[in-house]
Specification:
Layout: H1 3-34, H2 54-59, H3 66-97, H4 103-112, H5 118-131, H6 139-162, H7 167-174, H8 179-190, H9 192-208, H10 211-216, H11 225-230, H12 242-262, H13 264-273
Helix pairs in contact: 1-12, 3-6, 3-9, 4-6, 6-9, 7-8, 9-13
Length: 277
């Protein structure tokens, strides 16, 4: 191996290490801060000394209601993922396989709806949900969240379905399947990596959603975890519990990290499956 090749290899490793350190630094600092005592929360050392779990005990104190907030996040994110994935799968299949007028225009309009900033439709949604009595309900968070994740899901799955050869369905229909049976028995199993990847993306987006959940709820028993963390109370009115917020941030992030680590192969397979025909 020549000196030039060695330098390139080392530069490659240094570049990868720099990107990894840049991405993980905020989470590392959040983890370290969560393990400090309240009196050491502004310490700038790289490791907590001594290690303390008082912030984690404070997070799960009954007055914070964090366990209920986690359950609410799971209900909202899970329901949003299931409903959005179901609608996106049928819509994407129709956009990829069926021929009808203005199909490209419709697909463009679908993706264009994701460009609207959340804050621009927040007031109309708040007025509408107040009139129909949806404030402090799960559907007030699920329905708007679906509208924001559906365009990305439809676009992603449409691209994926387009890469699958038409001969698969034609062969199934020659064997006696209807188009619906070919879709259910042939296309859906083969499209599992793309559908799974889309489900992960939808769940992460719904799990981290904050603005809608903050605006549509004012009862602690219905608030999701991001909203509950923002409302953590300290010992006094002017005390901000940074340690508890860091600990809660770690607890909210861990499920997503575990999910991505467990299913990273499927996610990568789904993201790259539609890249080449």
């Amino acid at each position: 191996m020549t000196a030039t090749v060695k330098w390139r290899t080392w530069l490659l490793y240094l570049g990868v290490a720099a990107v990894v350190a840049y991405c993980l630094a905020p989470f590392y600092w959040m983890l370290v801060s969560s393990l400090r005592r309240t009196s050491d929360i502004f310490d700038t050392s790289l490791l907590p000394a001594p290690v303390s779990f008082e912030n984690y005990r404070a997070v799960f104190s009954p007055s914070q209601g964090f366990g209920r907030a986690l359950l609410n996040s799971l209900i909202v994110s899970g329901t949003t993922t299931v409903l959005a994935l179901l609608l996106a799968t049928f819509t994407a299949y129709a956009m990829a396989r069926l021929e009808f007028r203005f199909k490209r225009l419709i697909l463009t309009l679908i993706i264009a709806t994701s460009m609207f900033p959340v804050v621009s439709i927040l007031v109309p949604l708040l007025k509408l949900f107040t009139d129909i009595g949806w404030i402090n309900t799960y559907q007030a968070m699920i329905v708007p969240s679906m509208s924001f994740v559906l365009p990305l899901a439809v676009w992603n799955l449409t691209t994926f379905f387009r890469q699958m050869p038409d001969e698969l369905e034609q062969a199934a229909m020659i064997d006696g399947c209807t188009r619906g049976q070919a879709f259910r028995k042939i296309i859906i199993p083969l499209a599992a990596p793309g559908i799974f990847t889309t489900a992960i993306i939808i769940f992460i987006a719904a799990w981290n959603e904050f603005l809608i959940a903050l605006s549509m709820t004012n009862r602690p028993s219905i608030q999701t975890a991001p909203v509950a963390i923002s409302k953590f109370a300290g010992a006094s009115q002017f005390d901000t519990p940074f340690g508890s917020q860091m600990a809660a941030g770690v607890l909210v992030t861990i499920p997503l990290v575990i999910m991505v680590l467990l299913f990273q192969r499927r996610i990568v397979a789904g993201l790259t499956a539609g890249a080449a025909k």
